[in-house]
Amino acid sequence: MAIQSGVTDMSMRLVLNVGTNQNGKAITKSKVYKYVKVDAPAEKVHEAATALASLQGYTLEAVQMLSTSDVVAI
Fold first, then answer.
1. pLDDT tens, 10-67?
2. Choosing a second label site near 51 at 20 to 30 A (CA), which of 35, 43, 67, 74?
3. Predicted pLDDT of residue 58
4. What is the pLDDT of residue 51?
5. Is 19 left (phi over 0), alpha (psi -120 to 50) or beta?
6. Who's near 61: CB < 8 A, 6+ residues apart?
7. What is the C-alpha to C-alpha distance for residues 29 and 61, in angstroms, rounded to an integer?
8. What is the DSSP letter of 43?
9. What is the count of structural domains for the chain?
10. In whole angstroms, what is the distance from residue 11 CA to residue 34 CA?
């Protein structure tokens, strides 16, 4: 039996540094933006993430892509 998978949904997560706690560890906050095109180039996603992060009051630590895939037997 052959198996096929395909990305059906994509989201982008911005990880923002909101400061440090009393022990000096970084405190982060995440913002998730859904409905990213599944075929969007990584460069464009990073560009959009940087633009969105500039509207926040915090430093951008990371941009993460979250995908959902369907795996089906054919």
1. 999 999 999 999 999 999 999 999 999 999 999 999 999 999 999 999 999 999 999 9
2. 67
3. 95
4. 97
5. left
6. 15, 16, 17, 26, 28
7. 10
8. H
9. 1
10. 4
3-class secondary structure, 26: strand
Quote the domain boundaries for residue 33: 3-73
| Tokens 């509207």, located at residue | 55
Closest alpha carbon to 68 in 6, 9, 4, 1: 9
In terms of DSSP H, where are the helices of the chain? 42-54
Q: Please list the helix, strand and coil fractions of the chain in percent, rounded to the nearest 5, in that order.
A: 20, 55, 25
pLDDT band at 1 (very low <50, low <70, confident <90, very high): confident
Q: How far is residue 14's CA from residue 45's CA, in Å, rounded to a whole number?
A: 11
- Between 63 and 73, name the one with better pLDDT: 63
Structure tokens at 57: 């009051």
How far is residue 9 CA from its own chain's centroid? 12
